[in-house]
Every structure is written in C-alpha cells, then in structure tokens.
Amino acid sequence: DAGVIQSPRHEVTEMGQEVTLRCKPISGHDYLFWYRQTMMRGLELLIYFNNNVPIDDSGMPEDRFSAKMPNASFSTLKIQPSEPRDSAVYFCASSLGGGQQFFGPGTRLTVL
Amino acid sequence: DAKTTQPPSMDCAEGRAANLPCNHSTISGNEYVYWYRQIHSQGPQYIIHGLKNNETNEMASLIITEDRKSSTLILPHATLRDTAVYYCIVRVGFWGGNTGKLIFGQGTTLQVKP
Lengths: 112, 114
Prior knowledge:
Radius of gyration of chain B: 14 Å
Helix content of chain B: under 10%
Strand order of the largest sheet of chain B: 1-9-8-3-4
Largest sheet of chain A: 7 strands, mixed
Strand content of chain B: over 45%
Oligomer: heterodimer
Structural class of chain B: mainly beta
Shape of chain A: globular
Number of helices of chain A: 0
Distance between the termini of chain B: 37 Å
Order of helices and strands of chain A: EEEEEEEEEEE
Order of helices and strands of chain B: EEEEEEEEE
Number of strands of chain B: 9
Number of helices of chain B: 0
Radius of gyration of chain A: 13 Å
Number of strands of chain A: 11
C-alpha cells in the first residue's frame, strides 16, 4: 500500500498566484481530510469529505481557499490568490469510517 | 470535544520506558482517547486509542485511569527514532455521530537521548 500521496512536496510561489495542492487517499478509504500546520497555530483541520461530499469546511480560513473531491481517489485544495500568510505545511489524511487517520507526507508551501 | 493538557516537553534515556501523561478532566462517557505522534517533517502517525480499558499494541501501551480524567502513553523501550511530538486527543467515537474530526493541541515534544 502506497499510503496517502500528496503532490507537490514543495511549492514556492509568488503572492497573488493560484496554488493547487493534490491528494490521493488510500484506496477504499471513505473519509478525506485537509490540515494545515504552522508554527503559530499548530495543526488545524481545514475541511473533510465523506464519500466525496464535503461535510465540514468550517476550518477553511476564507474564500480564497477551496477544496474539491471529484472522485474517491483524488482531491485538490486550491488557494486563489495566494498570500504570504498562507505559507505552511498542508497535510492530507484519509480514513476508513471514523477510524484512525493516515496522513500523507505533506506539501510545504512558501508564498513570497 | 474535551480539551487535553500535556507537558510541553520531556526527555527520556534510550532503552528506558517513556511515560507521557495527558489530562482530560472534562472527557465525556462516549469520548475516546487517541494518541498520534509527529516525527520531524513528517505527517502525524497514529499510535493507539482507547475508551476505558488499558490498551496495548506493537508500538505502545495506553493506561487510562478509572475515572478517565487522565491517561498515560507508555513507550516501553524508547529509541532515538521515537523522538517526536506526541499528541493526546479526545474525540467522540464514530458511532456517536462524530464524523472523525481530530483536534490537535500543542502536544509533548519527547526527546530520546543516547
């Protein structure tokens, strides 16, 4: 099992640019979570999906952030336009039912 | 979900048992105690969870007090690779209607020393 796959692993962009982060969950898992980690705020849940449907997006910081899950094997987190304060490590996780969550390696985003 | 309190940091000698405490005095009857850890620059990793009975797996043991207001994660023979941030999280079980949210606190940074 390849585990949760995220791409890219590192992203450097300039303020105002669109950023798209990608995630492939573990096959068969029905929950997918997006987290953000910063030194100041720690690890925060942004949004999660169940069976490809967004369930709770209360953690999404503002309208510049959007997430989609077009099918069971792929999800994206998009930031448009990006700002320097969006710099963080973004983790994707998946789980079967409400069980343990398996995290991906993360995408380190730097917005200049 | 109930809030947890953990010491910010701990040290442990390699080969010795590491005992990481967690207070969760406001835990409800249907809430589980979960432990995750995060090794530097990696995604969090599930360790163990329990409701009221002590639990053991290949990674660790979880001891929950009888009143469930606190718990201890035990790594029986700590190695240098166990150096990480350890998170204690309380959440409702899946069948309680909760949909799987994990709320991470600041955790305990465990430093295993040779």
